[in-house]
Task: inverse folding
């Protein structure tokens, strides 16, 4: 305790410079703790959103088998429909009240009666902006869904009151709302793992370096002061505790300020929102675990760093007081770097040879491990590279400025580590973010110029079908019927698809159809698709048709005449091997038992939105399948991109702050050397060149290593991701531009650190 009190007394009585250094350490710790709190709060925000989603899931009391609902008279029924609204899901819950009263879902005081509508605040604004949405939401607006019933403030959600007979297929029985889990989480567990892995590389790794830099401010001056205390008789451990007292005090004050900054940031950003990601302020409130990690973990890290930084002064105080030459840094950086680069290179070779790994479980462990090893090895290798390069340049150069700069880097390679590490890790992490964004882009990009819509015709009328075919924006339509499947036989029973369309309709649906003749059945054949072996010419398949409650079986013979056509390879509208039937082949007024109406439009977002609105205007409860557009996945990708954007902003703040703090501190520490050189006749221009070279050379070397290792790590990640892109050549110019920009900013920022005022007192003051 005496040593701790002594450390605090020295802090308060060591002059203005010591107090400024302490405030700088506090500010740096506050920035780091705030960034750490943001990263730790993200899982809590996602869990809160998923909890509200789970609390509103319609459910029922089930029988002992856990499958069937317990039926009773007067139970309400529900039908849930989720449609794409751009890249967001629009969820509509149709509720048919019964005579039995049940607890309403969260956010509502009672179930809506037929003709009543309750919408979320964001959906109400969308209705005012786009009146066509009314077709999807029939009823009179009776109120707003409360916050406890919405996952986030921007959610598009509605409860629509309808009659029992208006529910398509009768709906599902509902007696309660709420489950222990949700089938539609904000982020899937696998996607959340990707986010955690990326944020760890982008934020946590630079954050650990930044906090270590803040804890070692004015290391040389403090080392001399601690060495003096050691020579006055203070014990070795006591000397380390004196130094740790200052770093712990700064980290503790910084943790309190950082948590306060986070609280303010949460209140502001949650109300403003991020692109595609918003949350309620209580979701991001500080938890006990976050407070403990920030309030205890950061001071604990400062304690260990403070004790370690005082080890040299405590062990050999005379060498510190006499400014003995430091020992050259060891090559321990190769210890983590070699296995990390081995894993990365192995995956790159596997991708280059066309043998990507199939074991995703093993890759999910090896890939994060490789990134951590490469990142740590890169940090530990910087002093070695800086010292080696400085030796060679100093021996070969004839410039006095460059020689002075390189000799300083040679005798003090640890300074390069503190100045350059933050920006080096930032560039390395930026490559990983590029890899994640490329993989997400492969999933979310709609490469097809058209969009199809599949609507089941089971139970619908011919009038509804004609109305859907005439929806504005639809440029092609066809009916696809499926033959009866004889499931009673003990082997697989083949089936046949019949496309009911004219030649003009067919040409509107596919890119090429040569030789089509109206009124003649033909077999569709696309050479780019896998052909069905069972659909041989001459085979007959039964199709069930209905008219006024009577069933009629229509036999369709597979024709020998083939119509060659071309379709989308990834999302084909028709399957090769189907039979093209003219509309006259189907008996008049008969409806197919198993058929789908396929509509086609442009894939432009505004066109897709208009077509979906038109389909809902015919029947709001219709279920529409939109191949190639999984709206929940698109929303998850938007959330991931927003979170990665947060990580990059935090990483940029940490990297720039780390550079500014370390470069300023190093310049202050070098004032005695600068003063001595000035008294010996060195010109200010020479001193500025020396200062710039000392910062730029190790930073440029570190950034070059970061670009190379980062691109290799990015490529190995893409290889393990299973996508089609393994090598991101387009991202190299951006990374190089960022690296060159960082070097330029560092050079400009180093110019004013020399100063113009010469104070001879600095060369004799401890």
Result:
């Amino acid at each position: 305790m005496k040593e701790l009190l002594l450390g605090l007394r020295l802090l308060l009585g060591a002059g203005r410079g010591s107090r400024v250094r302490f405030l700088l350490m506090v500010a740096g710790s506050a920035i780091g703790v705030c960034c750490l709190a943001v990263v730790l709060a993200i899982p809590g925000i996602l869990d809160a959103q998923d909890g509200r989603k789970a609390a509103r899931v319609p459910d029922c009391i089930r029988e002992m088998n856990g499958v069937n609902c317990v039926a009773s008279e007067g139970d309400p029924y529900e039908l849930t429909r989720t449609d794409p609204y751009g890249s967001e899901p629009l969820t509509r819950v149709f509720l048919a009240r019964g005579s039995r009263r049940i607890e309403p879902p969260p956010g509502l005081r009672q179930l809506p009666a037929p003709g009543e509508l309750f919408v979320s605040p964001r959906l109400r604004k969308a209705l005012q902006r786009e009146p066509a949405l009314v077709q999807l939401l029939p009823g009179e607006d009776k109120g707003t869904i409360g916050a406890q019933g919405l996952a986030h403030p921007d959610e598009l959600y509605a409860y629509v009151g309808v009659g029992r007979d208006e529910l398509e297929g009768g709906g599902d029985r509902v007696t309660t709302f709420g489950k222990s889990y949700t089938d539609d989480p904000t982020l899937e567990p696998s996607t959340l793992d990707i986010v955690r892995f990326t944020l760890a590389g982008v934020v946590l790794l630079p954050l650990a370096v930044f906090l270590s830099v803040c804890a070692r401010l004015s290391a040389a001056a403090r080392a001399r002061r601690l060495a003096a205390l050691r020579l006055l008789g203070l014990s070795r451990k006591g000397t380390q505790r004196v130094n740790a007292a200052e770093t712990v005090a700064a980290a503790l004050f910084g943790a309190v300020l950082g948590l306060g900054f986070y609280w303010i940031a949460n209140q502001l950003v949650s109300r403003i929102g991020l692109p595609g990601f918003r949350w309620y302020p209580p979701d991001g409130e500080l938890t006990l675990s976050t407070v403990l990690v920030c309030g205890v973990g950061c001071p604990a890290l400062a304690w260990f760093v403070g004790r370690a930084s005082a080890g040299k002064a405590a062990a050999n105080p005379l060498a510190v007081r006499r400014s003995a030459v430091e020992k050259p840094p060891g090559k321990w950086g190769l210890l983590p770097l070699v296995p990390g680069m081995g894993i990365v290179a192995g995956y790159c070779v596997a991708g280059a040879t066309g043998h990507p790994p199939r074991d995703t479980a093993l890759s999910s462990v090896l890939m994060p491990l490789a990134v951590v090893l490469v990142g740590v090895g890169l940090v530990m290798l910087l002093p070695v590279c800086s010292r080696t390069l400085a030796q060679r340049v100093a021996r070969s150069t004839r410039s006095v400025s460059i020689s002075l700069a390189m000799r300083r880097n040679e005798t003090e390679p640890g300074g390069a580590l503190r100045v350059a590490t933050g920006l080096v890790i930032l560039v390395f992490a930026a490559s990983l973010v590029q890899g994640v964004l490329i993989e997400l882009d492969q999933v979310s990009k709609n490469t097809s110029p058209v969009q199809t819509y599949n609507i089941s015709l089971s139970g619908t009328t011919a009038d509804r079908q004609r109305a859907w075919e005439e929806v504005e924006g639809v440029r092609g339509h066809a009916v696809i019927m499926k033959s009866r499947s004889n499931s009673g036989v003990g082997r697989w029973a083949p089936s046949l698809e019949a496309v009911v369309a004219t030649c003009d309709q067919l040409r509107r649906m596919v890119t090429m159809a040569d030789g089509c003749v109206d009124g003649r059945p033909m077999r569709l054949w696309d050479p780019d698709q896998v052909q069905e072996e069972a659909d041989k010419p001459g085979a007959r398949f039964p199709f069930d048709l209905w008219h006024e409650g009577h069933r009629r079986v229509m036999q369709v013979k597979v024709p020998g005449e083939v119509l060659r056509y071309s379709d989308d390879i990834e999302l084909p509208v028709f399957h090769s091997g189907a039979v093209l039937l003219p509309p006259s082949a189907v008996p008049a007024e008969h409806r197919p038992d198993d058929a789908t109406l396929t509509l086609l439009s442009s894939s432009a977002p505004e066109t897709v939105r208009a077509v979906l609105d038109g389909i809902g205007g015919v029947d709001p409860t219709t279920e529409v399948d939109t191949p190639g557009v999984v709206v929940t996945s698109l929303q998850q990708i938007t959330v991931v991109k927003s979170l990665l954007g947060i990580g990059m902003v935090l990483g940029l703040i940490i990297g720039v702050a780390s550079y500014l703090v370390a470069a300023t501190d190093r310049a202050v520490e070098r004032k005695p050397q600068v003063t001595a050189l000035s008294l010996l006749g060195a010109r200010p221009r020479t001193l500025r060149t020396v200062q710039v070279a000392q910062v730029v050379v190790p930073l440029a070397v570190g950034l070059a290593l970061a670009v190379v290792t980062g691109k290799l790590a990015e490529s190995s990640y893409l290889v393990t991701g299973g996508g089609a892109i393994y090598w991101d050549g387009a991202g190299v110019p951006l990374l190089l531009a960022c690296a060159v920009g960082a070097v330029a900013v560092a050079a400009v920022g180093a110019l004013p650190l020399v100063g113009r005022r010469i104070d001879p007192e600095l060369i004799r003051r401890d």
Q: What stands out?
A: Residues 487-491 have pLDDT under 50 and may be disordered.
